Design the sequence.
């Protein structure tokens, strides 16, 4: 009998292949489904990387336009989300270059016009959101204190649950760099949350 | 307790969460944590930080998926409309190159004859022949460049207001 892990990876593989086929054909229904399926994860990644919800929405839309235009480049051999995050990241980097920004950190520099404002206060907030808002704000404020390159790896590893090898592909850096960023990021997160709790 | 032992424990606590550790190291770590309050507290704080990160949520802008789907469908339509034109361009280029290849020896002869008749320097009619041969490629490149620059203008929206 096939082990659950093997069965899972086979299912994931066939899902990736079917996405690749749909992207080759620019299947509009499949793109609609993918946008809905990945909206939360992609938006959260972009929001944490850019530190600004409005800018994250711009990048979100542009990412899906790129997926449509370059869908034929996805071969279905890797997980779709890894390819999707790589596209989104390249867009952010290209934008930074066009703005002559030196590093991801500048995007969330509190001195700039767009400070990190991830909680949209104008939206209706159900009771459970109100109850968890304090925790959310604490985490988001703590993340804001962490340099963007570490914040990004923490989000990819512990929220998006990408493998280290997949992260190396998304970030276009060696495995050792991913690992060292993760260790430093973890340390920084712990420190930031402790600091947040103390203040 | 030796400082090195604490350092090893702290490294293993982080490694276990980032990339995993071998069973022997894990056994050693468990044994150490049972007798070391400081490292236990560090492990607890690390787990707490990761739990908070994993469970933290952000709210999506209303209608985000709908707006994006609309834009993507518009772009898809645009690409579909442009496809026949682009295909015709490639077909024309391919036909032109094929014709150029087949007729090259005759055209060379024609240029040579014309050069001799008019007394034009050899260099000039040779350059003329070269241009005649590369014009389809230059034309195709110019069209593609124009298309790319138009695409670049279209994605400038992302910079607006930032």
Sequence:
């Amino acid at each position: 009998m096939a082990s659950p892990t093997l069965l899972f990876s086979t299912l994931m593989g066939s899902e990736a292949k079917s996405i690749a086929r749909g992207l080759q054909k620019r299947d509009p229904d499949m793109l609609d489904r993918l946008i809905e399926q990945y909206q939360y994860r992609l938006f959260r990644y972009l929001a944490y990387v850019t530190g600004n919800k409005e800018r994250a929405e711009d990048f979100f839309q542009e990412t899906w336009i790129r997926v449509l235009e370059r869908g034929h480049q996805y071969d279905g051999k890797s997980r779709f989300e890894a390819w999707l995050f790589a596209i989104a990241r390249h867009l952010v980097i290209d934008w930074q270059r066009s703005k002559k920004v030196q590093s991801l950190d500048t995007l969330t520099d509190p001195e700039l016009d767009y400070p990190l404002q991830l909680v949209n206060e104008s939206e209706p907030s159900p009771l459970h959101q109100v109850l968890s808002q304090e925790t959310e704000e604490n985490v988001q404020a703590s993340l804001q204190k962490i340099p963007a390159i570490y914040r990004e790896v923490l989000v990819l590893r512990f929220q998006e649950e990408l493998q280290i090898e997949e992260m190396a592909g998304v970030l276009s850096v060696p495995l050792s760099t991913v690992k060292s960023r993760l260790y430093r990021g973890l340390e920084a997160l712990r420190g930031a949350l402790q600091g947040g709790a103390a203040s | 307790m030796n400082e090195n032992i604490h350092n090893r424990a702290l490294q293993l606590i982080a490694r276990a969460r980032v990339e995993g550790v071998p069973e022997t190291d894990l056994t050693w770590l468990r044994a150490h944590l049972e007798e070391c309050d400081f490292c236990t507290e560090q492990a607890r704080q690390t787990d707490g930080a990761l739990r908070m990160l994993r469970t933290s949520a952000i709210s999506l802008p209303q209608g985000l998926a709908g707006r994006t789907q609309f834009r993507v469908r518009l772009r898809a339509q645009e690409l579909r409309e442009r496809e026949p034109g682009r295909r015709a361009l490639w077909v024309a280029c391919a036909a032109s190159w094929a014709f150029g290849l087949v007729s090259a020896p005759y055209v060379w002869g024609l240029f040579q004859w014309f050069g001799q008749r008019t007394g034009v320097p050899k260099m000039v009619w040779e350059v003329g022949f070269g241009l005649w041969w590369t014009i389809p490629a230059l034309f195709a490149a110019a069209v593609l460049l124009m298309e790319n620059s138009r695409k670049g203008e279209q994605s400038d929206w992302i910079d607006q207001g930032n």
